[in-house]
Amino acid sequence: MVKILLLGIGRWGTNHLRLLHTLPVELFVAEVNQERLAHARSIGIPETHLFKSHHEVSKKADAIVVVTPANTHFELCKEFLEADKDVFVEKPITLRSEDARVLVRIADQRKRILQVGHIFRYDPASQWLKDAIQQGKFGRIKILRGNFSGFKRPRNDTGVTFADSIHFIDLFNYFMGRSPNRVSATMKDFMGRGMDDASFVAMDYDGVDGTTLATVESGYYSPGKFREVVVVGEELSTVCDYNVAQYKIKTYENKHIKVDGGFKTVEGAMHQIELPPEEPLLKELRAFIESVQMRKPPLADGWSGYEAVRVVETSLKSAENGQTIKLS
Fold it and tell me: What is the set of domains in the chain, with CATH numbers?
């Protein structure tokens, strides 16, 4: 049985706690907040497995799940990887791409599993979209559009681009099989916190058959809760609503047909895609445990975390100087 240390049981860490407690692992928990530790105790984590500091217990664990503020990720992950522990770290892997690169290289050198919490990769809807794109069902991909916004409390450790946009930035990298060639962005700090709270990121993915335009919107102001991705191809288009449990994907066989020097629209059939309801975080954690046991690379590995941070980093620079920036 894999021994896992969960480090941090705050707002998102409580979900890790709930699910890891149901999985066939020996679970240890480290958390400085006594009320949160009491919650872990109340759901049945034995007192012998509860700790105020990871220093008291990390040697006992085979793998560490890091769900702490983003600015702590680099030092913690570096410490654990250098101690030959496998690591799952919530996104973003780090706040600087050069730090992410350091972690990935340590993991590679020491043959450690390093998985990043890019949860949307593990949603069955994302798997369907990825497969459909690879199989050519969409034809050439023209547009990718993501909206990850809604009225909610902002995170204190990062701006909204690092907190939310990064989800769909990574997802689009996953769909396209590469990072974008160019990035431009506009961001605002309406709250005056010194961090962005409204963000619009545009990315160009150049390919042999042309350029795909991808945009990601995020922010803390729009009424409601939006977790929507649109994929527009020459042969097929789709709207994927990640808020929906089962029928997340609707496909449309819409086309523009050239006629007499102009274009007309042809609205084709619409289909709903039924997918098995599955909690992505549970699938993600199961995948991490399997990677630890089987020593196989995770779907969201350290390099994917590095690339996502690199794009966010570039978008922040673009928003600051008002220019489109090429990525090497």
Answer: 3-119+281-301 (3.40.50.720), 121-278+310-326 (3.30.360.10)
